[in-house]
Amino acid sequence: MKILGISGSPIADSNTDRAVKAVLTASGIDHEFHKLSEYTVSPCNACLGCVKTNRCVIKDDGNFFVELVKEADALVIGGFTPYSTLDSRTKAFLERMYPLRHNHGLLKGKPGASVISSCVPENAEGLPPAGMLGANAVQFFMMEEGMNYLGNVDLKGNVPCLTCGNGDSCSMTGITLLYGPGATTASVGLRAFEKQPEAVASAQEIGLGIKAALKKQS
Predict the structure, then answer these.
(1) Other Cβ atoms closer than 10 A to 51
(2) Contact between 141 and 134 (Cβ < 8 Å)
(3) pLDDT per residue over 179-215, tens digit each?
(4) Coil, strand or helix: which one is 217?
(5) Do the Cβ atoms of 23 and 5 come closer than 8 Å?
(6) Less Cβ crowding at N or C end of the chain, within 10 Å?
(7) Which residues of the chain register pLDDT less than 70?
């Protein structure tokens, strides 16, 4: 058996990367990890050229991932939430799995989970529930494909303004928008996956849940 882990984060060794890998490791099952920023995956053209072949007509790395997902026994998808929605790389990846749907439902029954990083605080007044929206995008994809969605690792992410060099002076800084008028780069600080006990526990739980689901299927 093999679990496939995908990260849409372009940041090297990002929180999203490490959390996806933590889920994979916790499963104790053979696994494979890929970072979408290292590939070219265009969005779906809605041409329906894949109906008869279960293979996309676009000539890029999308079909490489279609084959990986088809052969994998479980799938863990990691993404983040720029502008309070799922990032474009991860969304394009989801769209390009459409060829696996036609006639056969090649994802049906496979265990799956999500890892979503968001810098928007939970229940922040006047701000969208970005983390939930990102997780829902993956969850509903898996639901529509008949997969067995096992849950989400909710990561507290880092707004880019913390590291751009102008976070405390820019008139458009997201630091005060997200954390209040008195917030600064120093007072907010960078968040690491390993220092978020709930996220670490969720990664462990989901990894074990995938293992249990696959064992039940075998």
Answers:
(1) 12
(2) no
(3) 999 999 999 999 999 999 999 999 999 999 999 999 9
(4) helix
(5) yes
(6) C
(7) none
